[in-house]
């Protein structure tokens, strides 16, 4: 794994204090890196299924996913972002496909005390920075 990826992840964590956990998935669906506090390896199949499902206009797709035993309701599922929210206040998930609509991704666990949109711009911005590296 590239130290450039690690540098970008560290910059994201320093800039956006509401991102509590990060993982990067390459275009083949493998984990390139993840923060020590967040292990998504057991849930990689579900995340890859979400990333690989291309929705037609009006199609709903997956309605929820679980990561580390926490269920997130999918509240937005577009080519640019997949956003999940835990309904009992255990946080949010932002999955930013890399490239947009692609099968790689920047996967972030978001502070339960905020709305996921508060961190969305930073997450998507850093996903663009990772595009050439994965």
Widest sheet: strand ordering: 2-1-7-6-5-4-3
| The first-level CATH class name | Alpha Beta
How many DSSP helices? Answer: 3
- Whole-Å distance between the termini? 9 Å
Mean pLDDT: 93
Radius of gyration computed on alpha carbons: 13 Å
Percent strand: 25-35%
Second rung of CATH, namely the architecture: 2-Layer Sandwich
The biggest beta sheet reads: 7 strands, antiparallel
How many structural domains can be distinguished in the coordinates? 1
Assembly state here? single chain
CATH superfamily, by name, is Dynein light chain 2a, cytoplasmic
The run of helices and strands is HEEHEEEEEH
For the secondary structure, the number of strands is: 7
What structural class results from the helix and strand content?
alpha+beta
Keywords:
globular; Beta-Lactamase; alpha+beta; seven-stranded antiparallel beta sheet; 31% strand; 27% helix
TL;DR of this structure?
This protein has 134 residues and is an alpha+beta fold.
Description:
The protein has 134 residues and is α+β, with helices and mostly antiparallel strands. The protein has one domain: Dynein light chain 2a, cytoplasmic (Beta-Lactamase, 2-Layer Sandwich), CATH 3.30.450.30. The chain has three helices and seven strands; from the N terminus they run H-E-E-H-E-E-E-E-E-H. It has a seven-stranded antiparallel beta sheet with strand order 2-1-7-6-5-4-3, sandwiched between helices. A hairpin with a 4-residue loop joins strand 4 and strand 5. The radius of gyration is 13 Å and the shape is globular. The termini are close together. The model has no long low-confidence stretch (mean pLDDT 93).
């Amino acid at each position: 794994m590239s130290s450039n990826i690690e540098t970008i992840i560290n910059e994201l964590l320093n800039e956006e204090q509401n991102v509590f956990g990060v993982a990067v998935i390459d275009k083949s669906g493998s984990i390139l890196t993840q923060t020590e506090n967040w292990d998504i390896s057991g849930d990689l199949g579900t995340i890859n299924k979400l990333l690989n499902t291309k929705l037609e206009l009006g199609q709903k797709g997956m309605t929820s996913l679980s990561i580390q035993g926490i269920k997130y309701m999918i509240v937005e599922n577009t080519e640019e972002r997949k956003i999940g929210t835990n309904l009992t206040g255990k946080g949010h998930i932002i999955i930013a496909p890399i490239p947009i609509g692609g099968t790689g991704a920047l996967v972030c666990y978001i502070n339960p005390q905020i709305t996921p949109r508060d961190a969305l711009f930073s997450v998507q911005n850093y996903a663009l920075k990772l595009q050439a590296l994965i």
